């Protein structure tokens, strides 16, 4: 499925954007959980235009620079809505190379395993701290009431989920490290 298609439709549903604005939005807003390369975005814009889900107006910028301003069409809004409201099965678990190493832990020495897990814990803690800070900034910006009607609600949902995931990862790493610390050498 072309999920990038829906990311573009979702962004344009909030307002018209140039191709350049689109790539900056990807970087600044979606990039943390949904990265896309410039090289993927432009062909998708062309495809969506051909399909009638988006359209563009050429506007003159400065003295002679032209840019295309894209907007979503009624058909595009319908397509976006159909995707948003469709129920989907749980996808396959996202690959995590560290989990593969954890599965093969007994191929390492105890000390190597401890070092690997401690390193992962410190990095996951850093990530959790970053997300916590982002969430605090968002709450600050949004004021008291973040709820369904808030324009920040979607961002809030993504950040709380990501923070929960990282905190959960940290608890698991800590529990594993405690088990490694308790390890009794073979008699
Ligand atoms: C953001 C910063 C980080 C954000 C999402 C993330 C949606 C990370 C998400 C993840 O790791 O799942 O501003 O906004």
UniProtKB/TrEMBL annotation:
Annotated protein name in UniProt: PadR family transcriptional regulator
Residues covered by the Transcription regulator PadR N-terminal domain: 8-82
Record Pfam families: PadR, Vir_act_alpha_C
InterPro entries: Tscrpt_reg_PadR_C, Tscrpt_reg_PadR_N, WH-like_DNA-bd_sf, WH_DNA-bd_sf
Protein species of origin: Bacillus swezeyi
Lineage: superkingdom: Bacteria
Residue stretches making up the Transcription regulator PadR C-terminal domain: 94-180
């Amino acid at each position: 499925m072309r999920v990038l298609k829906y990311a573009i439709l979702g962004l344009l549903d909030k307002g018209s954007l140039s191709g350049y604005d689109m790539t900056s939005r990807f970087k600044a807003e979606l990039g943390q959980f949904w990265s896309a390369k410039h090289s993927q975005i432009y062909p998708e814009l062309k495809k969506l235009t051909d399909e009638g889900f988006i359209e563009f107006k050429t506007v003159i910028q400065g003295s002679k620079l032209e840019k295309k301003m894209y907007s979503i069409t009624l058909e595009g809004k319908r397509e976006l809505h159909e995707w948003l409201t469709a129920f989907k099965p749980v996808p396959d678990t996202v690959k995590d190379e560290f989990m593969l190493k954890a599965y093969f832990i007994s191929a390492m020495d105890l000390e190597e395993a401890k070092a690997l897990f401690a390193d992962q814990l410190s990095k996951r803690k850093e990530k959790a701290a970053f997300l916590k800070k982002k969430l605090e900034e968002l709450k600050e910006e949004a004021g008291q009431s973040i709820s369904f009607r808030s324009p920040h609600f979607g961002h809030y949902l993504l950040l709380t989920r990501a923070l929960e995931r990282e905190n959960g990862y940290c608890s698991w790493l800590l529990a594993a490290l405690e088990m490694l610390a308790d390890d009794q050498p073979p008699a």
